[in-house]
Amino acid sequence: MKKALITGITGQDGSYLAEFLLAKGYEVHGIKRRSSSFNTQRIDHIFEDPHVPDARLKLHYGDLTDSSNLTRIIEQVQPDEVYNLGAQSHVAVSFESPEYTADVSGLGTLRILEAIRLLGLEKTTRFYQASTSELYGLVQETPQRETTPFYPRSPYAVAKLYSYWMTVNYREAYGMYACNGILFNHESPRRGETFVTRKITRSLCNIALGLEPCLYMGNIDALRDWGHAKDYVRMQWMMLQQDEPDDFVIATGKQYSVRQFIEWSAAELGITLRYEGSGVDEIGIVEKIEGDQAPKLSVGDVILRIDPRYFRPAEVETLLGDPSKAKEKLGWVPEISTHEMCVEMVSEDLRIAKQSALLRAHGYNAALSTEK
Ligand code: NDP
Ligand code: GDR
Question: Could you confirm whether 136 is annotated as catalytic?
Answer without folding.
Answer: no
